Amino acid sequence: MNTNKEAESTMISTEDWGIINEITAFIYTTQPYPDLSQIIEKLKEIIPYSHSFSCLISDDNKNIEFFSYQSKDIPPAHIELYRTQYINYDFILWYSVSPKEMTFRESDIVVEKYMAESIFMKEWMEPINAYYGAVSNIVADNYSYGNICLYRSKEEGNFSDREMAILKTINHHLCLRFKDIFPRGIQRSSFDQSKSLYKSTYHLTDREFEIVQLICDGVTRKDLAERLFISGNTLKKHLNNIYSKINIKNFEELLMTVRPGIKYIK
């Protein structure tokens, strides 16, 4: 008898299970793969947090590459700083790429005093008022598929055992689903090749293609201009050119074109 699983199950309320079931249904029905940003957004109903991000991992059992960063509450420029600079200072990076399905509180892995004094805390976390973190490693058969990271301020307090049990339950289904879709791990080259077809097929400019790539990676319309460092009017002009070339009418149709089969959690 697995007493740990039984104990975790009793922490989760009937209301929690209702949200968990909605997220689980989304995980197994969305195509081409689960949108981690939508899962994170739905999780907020039962696991409060102030900041979050997710990423995918290209893993061929030789090299690991993080890509397709998504966040709806951390400024794109700050995510870019993480991707290009502070990932090397992240005090749980070594643990989050472990080839094992895991969900953990950062404070359970790293001594809190060390966290508070680290470069990563002072220069990347403190500017967004983040202190405590909860992380999910999406892993199966020694292949890493991605991470979900949730953050809270020191005033908001650490993540509870109940909340970690919920996150662990969701993460297990993510591991199963990604394994089913990508049995030999995610290869970023295949992602990039599928995107590049839009540029040659529809004769997109470099900027138009960059917009399509960002949409493929899950960047929302309201974040596109900031991510590209352009005005809303300039973005609108680029989008209208894309619509004309692909022969569609609006952003919703563009989203469905470049990310076929995408669904939304209610």
Automatic annotation (TrEMBL):
Entry superkingdom: Bacteria
PANTHER family for this protein: DNA-BINDING TRANSCRIPTIONAL ACTIVATOR DEVR_DOSR
Protein name: Regulatory LuxR family protein
SUPFAM superfamilies for this protein: C-terminal effector domain of the bipartite response regulators (SSF46894)
Record-annotated HTH luxR-type domain positions: 197-261
GO molecular function: DNA binding
GO terms under biological process: regulation of DNA-templated transcription
Pfam families named in the record: GerE (PF00196)
Keyword tags: DNA-binding, Transcription, Transcription regulation
Taxon lineage: Bacteria, Bacillati, Bacillota, Clostridia, Lachnospirales
